[in-house]
Structures are given as C-alpha cells and as structure tokens.
Design a protein that fits this description.
D-tyrosyl-trna(Tyr) Deacylase, Chain: A, alpha+beta, globular
C-alpha cells in the first residue's frame, strides 16, 4: 500500500463518471471536508495476500499522522497513480471500506470518497513541516534505507524453540500454546504462578507489536518525566527535569554497584565502520536492526551496546591469566537499535536508550560459570536496590540442548537462586554467539514482558576480535566473555516502576515511586503568605540534609495545593502555619500511609527519610524551588 498524506485546510471533490461499469451510481455533487488529513491510497498486488493486516497497518500510519498534525477529519481517497502494481479492484475497494470501518469504530471522523470513479478535486495543503508525507506500508517488514538488518534477525524466525518450565526441584515440564491457551504436558499448575503464565504465553507467541497504549505512557507525561519528541526519529524521547533526576540517579546507582564489584569504567565511541570484519560479523550475530550513517565517504553503524568499543579496547590490552576474571564497564548513553515502529512503546522499547554494559573476560568455562553466578546475585541486588522485589520479575533461561545436557546442575542452580519456577527456551543448535543466556523479565499491565537484567556466556567474540591473554605456560589464549546488563536499559527500569505503580493502584494500593527516586520528596505548603519565609527556612534545613524539597507559595487554597502535591506523588506534604512555627513540630501528611497526618519533629522526619533511602545516591532537582516560578512542561 502506498499512501500520500496531505494535511489540508480543505478538500473539495466531485464524482464525474465511473471508471468501472459495475459500480453503483453516486450523487454527482461537490463534497467539501475542512481541516482534513487526506490519505491518497493506492493498494498493490502484494496487499491482496493479507488484507486484514494491510488495513491494520495502514490505519495505524494514518492515525499516527492524524494525531500528529491535529487534523479534525480523515479522508480516504482511492488514488491508483502511485504504483504500477495495482491490486485487483475488488480487493482495493474492500481495503478502503475496511479502513473506513476501523476509523468509525475508533470514533475518528472519516470520509471515504467513491472507489472506481473519475473525480475532479482541489485541496489547499497547509504549509507546516508535517503537512506532507509519503508512506509505503507492507505486509512484510522491509529493510529501510539507512538501516542494517542483521542476518541473526532474519534467521531468528526460522529457529525452532522448545519451551519448558523448570522447577527448583529439577523437574522440567514441556509447555506449548494450544488453541490459544498455554498448556503444560506435565502437572504444572499455572494458577499458582499467574505472572509466569503471562510471561510464558508472551514469549512463546513471539509477537512484539503494541496495539494498545501502555499505562505508563500517560503517567510519564502527567508526572513530567518524559515524552515523545515529534521532530526526532520515533523511539527517541525527551526527558524533563524530573525525569532527568530519576534517570541520573539510576545511572549512578548501577555504576556504583558495578564498580564495587570490580568493574573498570571506560568510555567508547558511538559508531563503528561497517567494513570492519569483526564488527560486522558480530553485528550479524545479534538479532536487531541497526542505524546506518555516512560520513567522509565511509559507512558507519551506531552501536547497539558497548561490546564493540570494549572488545576493540581489550584486543589492544596486555592481559595475563592472573588478571582474569577482568571486568570492563560502560554506561552507554546511548545505544541504538532501529526497532520496528509497531513495537515502540514509550519507555518500554525505544530506539535510543541508556544501557549499563559490563563484560567479564574469563580464562575458561569453569571460571565463566563462577562469574556468571556472582553476576546473577549482583543483578538481583541491583533490581532490589532500584525497587523491585523478586515477585516483580520472572526468570527466563535460554540455552542449546548440548549445553544443558553437560551443565544441568549449573542451570538448576540459577533457578534455585531465583527461588521460583523459570521459563526455559531450548534450541537444538546454536544460532547466536552465546551458549547460555538468562534475563529477569518484568510483566506489565498489558501482559507484555520486558527484559531487565541479563547475562550471556559468549564463546565466539574473544577469537573474533583477537582478544588474548597469556596463560600459565606463556601461550596466548582467547577468553570466554560474559555480557551483562545489571539493570537492563535505564529507561526500561523507569517504565517498569511506573507500570508497577499503576498495577498497585488497580489493586487498591497507593501508587508511588521508591523514595530515593522520587523527584520531590517533601512539599512545603504555607497556610498563607505570612508563613512563606518560615517555609523557606525549613526548606533550607531539609536541603542541608540532602533531601529534595520545594515550596508551594502560589495563591491557591491549601486544599488545592495539597491535592496537586498528591497528584505529583509527593511522599511527604508539610502544611505549615502558626502552630508549626510556635511548636517546632511539623504537620506531615504521609502518602504511603493514605495521607495520614502526624506530628513530627524536623529531626524525626529527616531520620525516617534517610533510613529508607540508605546509601543510595543523591542528586538535587534542577527546578525552581518555589512553585510560583516553575514552568509547566506538559500542558
């Protein structure tokens, strides 16, 4: 399907005569539609293979543009002049009619001009940058100009996966989807593990398309954390000051954890030469689409992780067996993956993201397994520190059949460390560079799963990048490499925290972020202008204790200001006036306790906050402390 999309001040057309004799007559009168996104549609032969899918994808593209340009109407205008490979008339007609039905069902004002008629028409195209666009929609995803589609991605759909549930007692139970339902071939009761059921179903289906807005997207906007950037490539977000402080705190926390475990922090380039044999060979082993850019007559791809830079660095190092295991770490801001547009979803799946990436270089498989266990525990600690309990995520372990037969006890040890049954994906042969991989996966409100922590045992890239160490006999050997992201993408952690808060709210709990990540930890509300200066004094004392605090000095009722603080998920609200000034006791509303009001001394509140935060990093919020001077980022 080819589509020419024009945002018009108006479209006027008048049917003149039939191009196809069998069509019904229509009234030959002029029709005018104002403020319309006009979609000139040309259905092609390929579209006949799956009309339902082409309708869905075409409507998605038009809907997205319709919302982007803020038009009032959609016009579907059959236009056979955009292709030389036309669909049969009955198929093209049906596509337009089905698209019209979908828009009507979504209550989007839509008008379809008559199919198979010659028409005279005129329109007035608006002059803004987004007013004109051309889209080509295909049943199959096509490689676009400016991207690399790895061989691994093309081969991934051909891989045969065998799915199991592995219990901590060692029993491995085959599972499958049968007539739309997840079933086990043994006695495994998914009723006791509903989240694992949702996760397994999602993974086996292998569908990543997003057809419904995830709840965290309105939350990330309402809380002024992040939003889409319209003039960037889709999947590249903007972060507001509150989002930036959350993001930077997570970055610092994960980095602190890795460095304490012995990670050596480095920084490497964003782009690599497509013609570098090791880089492009490794890229083709990773199942993802990559950005391609040109500069100075050369082609480069943007990194999808820190692997390339760290491997090139390691290949130039002199490493002794005594140095191993050796950890190299980088927090990539950013890594790039050109995910399909239909899979992009707020903070969950992006095209540019921040990825903590720590590799361990090991002398052999035994040492690699020891490090793997250590890093597994580290990842659990990192997720706990961020704000996730073990019950918040599910374990997936993926390996070749050959690896499992030789290392059953090791795989089972991971499941025991997790403490609950895990999902297993087994392959008959190895298609990737790793022989074992695990992830901790968060399942959201729409029952979509997203990997947070992950680690892999890589047996190829030591040799591919000519990374060597000197063994006990003075000979050069290639190390085994572990690939670990202790938290997964930082943006995805924020997504999971927001989705968790949403699900807590649906379950009757109070939605909140972990205190150490909450942008405003205390909001001070003076009862009148008379006590603003007193509020400022208290605010300064809290700031001296490294607590993020602001003051609502606006000319609004106390009730309204309290309500706004609650909508911002502020954990502690202090209403201050005469009694507080005279008694030196603060009137504190505690969000997590249902906005219960208690009297506390300054020192008591500081102690409570500091004990809950512990040794987590602190950063100030880069917003005016007085709300009367604070801009609004989201309308």
């Amino acid at each position: 399907m080819k589509m020419l999309l024009i945002h018009s001040e108006y479209l006027k057309y008048k049917p003149m005569r039939k191009a196809l004799k069998y069509l019904k007559d229509v009234e030959k009168k002029e029709v005018k539609i104002d403020n319309a996104l006009v979609a000139f549609l040309c259905a092609e032969k390929e579209d006949e293979k799956n009309i339902e899918k082409i309708v869905e994808k075409s409507v998605e593209e038009i809907r997205s543009k319709f919302k982007e340009v803020k038009a009032k109407n959609v016009v579907l205008y059959p236009y056979a002049h955009l292709s030389s490979s036309l669909a049969k008339p009955y198929a093209a007609d049906r596509i337009v009619r089905e698209m019209e039905k979908k828009f009507k069902k979504e209550k989007i004002p839509v008008h379809a001009s008559p199919f198979g008629w010659y028409k005279e028409f005129s329109l007035h195209c608006l002059g803004h940058p987004l007013a004109e666009g051309f889209k080509e929609v295909s049943i199959e995803e096509k490689e676009e100009k400016g991207e690399i589609v790895s061989k691994a991605l093309k081969e991934e759909e051909k891989i045969v996966s065998h799915w199991f549930i592995l219990k901590p007692d060692g029993e491995m139970i085959p599972i499958k989807i049968e007539k739309g339902k997840l079933v086990s071939e043994g006695k495994f009761d998914f009723k006791k593990y509903d989240n694992l059921r949702k996760f397994a179903r999602y993974e086996i289906a292998k569908s990543r398309e997003v057809k419904q807005m995830p709840p965290h997207i309105p939350l990330m906007r309402e809380l002024e954390i992040a939003d889409y950037e319209k003039i960037s490539d889709p999947g590249n977000l903007r972060f507001y000051p509150k989002g930036r402080v959350i993001k930077s705190l997570l970055e610092d926390f994960v980095t602190q954890q890795v460095v304490e475990y012995g990670g050596m922090e480095v920084e490497t380039p964003l782009m690599y030469d497509v013609k570098h044999p090791a880089a492009i060979e490794y890229l083709n082993k990773f199942p993802a689409r990559q950005y391609l850019i040109e500069s100075g007559g050369r082609e480069f791809f943007l990194r999808f992780s820190a692997c390339f830079g760290q491997f090139c660095m390691a290949s130039d190092m002199t490493i002794s067996h005594k140095d191993l295991p050796l950890w190299i770490y980088e927090l990539t801001r950013y890594s790039f993956r050109r995910e399909r547009k239909s899979e992009l979803a707020g903070l969950r799946r992006l095209r540019a993201f921040t990825m903590p990436d720590v590799h361990a270089f090991c002398k052999d498989l035994d040492q690699a397994k020891e490090e793997f266990e250590k890093r597994f525990n580290m990842c659990q600690q990192v997720l706990k520190g961020i704000g996730f309990d073990k019950k918040d995520y599910e374990l997936a372990v993926r390996f070749t059949r050959d690896f499992y037969e030789k290392n059953k006890d090791f795989v089972l040890m991971l499941v025991k460390l997790h403490g609950r049954p895990a999902l297993v994906e087994m392959w008959d042969k190895r298609a990737f560079y790793f022989i074992l991989k695990y992830e901790f996966n968060f399942v959201d409100a729409l029952e979509k799963a997203s990997a947070l922590s992950t680690d892999q045992i890589d047996i190829e890239n030591g040799k591919r990048y000519n990374i060597t160490y000197i063994d006990e006999k003075g000979k050069k050997q290639h190390p085994i490499i572990l690939h670990c992201s202790p938290s997964g993408a930082i943006e995805r952690d924020i997504y999971a925290l927001l989705e968790k808060a949403y699900m807590d709210q649906k379950a009757g709990k109070i939605p909140r972020l972990p205190l150490w990540l909450t942008p405003i930890q205390i909001r001070i509300i003076p009862v009148s202008d008379e006590y603003v200066d007193f509020g400022k004094e208290i605010m300064q004392r809290f700031e001296n204790e490294k607590i993020r605090v602001d003051l609502d000095d606006r000319s609004m009722t106390v009730e309204k200001r309290v309500r706004e603080a609650e909508l911002e998920w502020v954990p502690f609200i202090l209403v201050v006036g005469k009694r507080e000034k005279e008694s030196e006791k603060l009137n504190v509303r505690i969000r997590e306790e249902g906005s219960k009001e208690v009297k506390m001394r300054f020192e008591e509140l500081v102690k409570r906050i500091q004990e809950e935060i512990g040794d987590k990093p602190f950063k100030p919020l880069s917003l005016p402390k007085l709300l009367s001077k604070r801009p609004k980022f989201v309308g």
